[in-house]
């Protein structure tokens, strides 16, 4: 499963947010492939299309797609030099696909701030610096090794070094590697380094309870937004404390509480949606009377590999897929109507799955 790691300085609200995530947690029986670990929370990705498909098909069961949030506690100033959990913490970040960086934007005299005052940009820079220092270390070492290996004049290694030199320059200027906007090919050349600052980032601005519905006037959030837009990152204002209260409720109680707060949906759902988007993921659906279900793929995935997300047998024995787009299916009103209109296509192994495709796989066992 894809993973987003939660980072942030101590006392900014990471655990509070992470607890809300695990409270709201997905029914794990549906997701046997997810990691079972106290530091991992499985979340279901809210998707209006799945609700509409459920109304249309009326299946026995509906299963949203899911991904994992990992609580990566322990970053402090000096982590890249081994302080706190130091390198162990950084190793956990290498494994995630995206980073959710929690930043303190709430005022509360009773909660100590590690640097003595609420200072979201300072906080962001403290953590970013540790990640940058760790990357400088990786890049320097890699350049040195590659130079040694380059004696034969290997063109690929030369290209790799050229990209690394650019990354190095950005890092020495305190800029994350993602700020370079490298092409797919360039990223491929340096993929094996698992650079921390190349990962996409979402800033979760933790605001006070009173600002859960509207943090528009919070000056700290404004600062974070400015910082993030310069960096090409996203911001989601959220009140971790309110989310932990919402997560304890269900059904009508939850709906009433959200209404009282003036919220259309929980901040957690907004955060999940934003993280999903940040990861550049697509959703396709299967829609049978037994089960209507959403599945996650990366953009560019071919039909057999998309089938493999359901089961490896589906990929191995793939013959073809029956495909209708979500829009066509909804407009037609039923699978049969879509078929009559010629909108149910047969696609082979070279078909690139689109976001919102409703698919049925034919395969040999
Ligand atoms: P972590 O060290 O980043 O994991 O931070 P915690 O989640 O443990 O939060 C630190 C303290 O801040 C706890 O006492 C939380 O109750 C408190 N806290 C977290 N979010 C909020 C918030 O939105 N408002 C207020 N007033 N306190 C919060």
From TrEMBL:
Q: Binding positions for ATP?
A: 11-16
Gene Ontology molecular function: any one: ATP binding
Gene3D superfamilies membership: 3.10.20.30, P-loop containing nucleotide triphosphate hydrolases, TGS-like domain
Start and end residues of each OBG-type G domain: 2-258
So which cofactors does this thing need? Mg(2+)
PROSITE patterns per UniProt: G_OBG (PS51710), TGS (PS51880)
Please give the Pfam families that the UniProt record associates with this protein: MMR_HSR1 (PF01926), YchF-GTPase_C (PF06071)
What UniProt keywords apply to this chain's record, in alphabetical order?
ATP-binding, Magnesium, Metal-binding, Nucleotide-binding
TGS domain residues are: 280-363
Superkingdom, taxonomy of origin: Bacteria
What do the Gene Ontology cellular component annotations say? cytoplasm
Job of this protein: ATPase that binds to both the 70S ribosome and the 50S ribosomal subunit in a nucleotide-independent manner.
Which NCBIfam families does this one have? redox-regulated ATPase YchF (TIGR00092)
Which family does the record claim for this protein? Belongs to the TRAFAC class OBG-HflX-like GTPase superfamily. OBG GTPase family. YchF/OLA1 subfamily.
Protein name listed in UniProt: Ribosome-binding ATPase YchF
What is the gene name? ychF
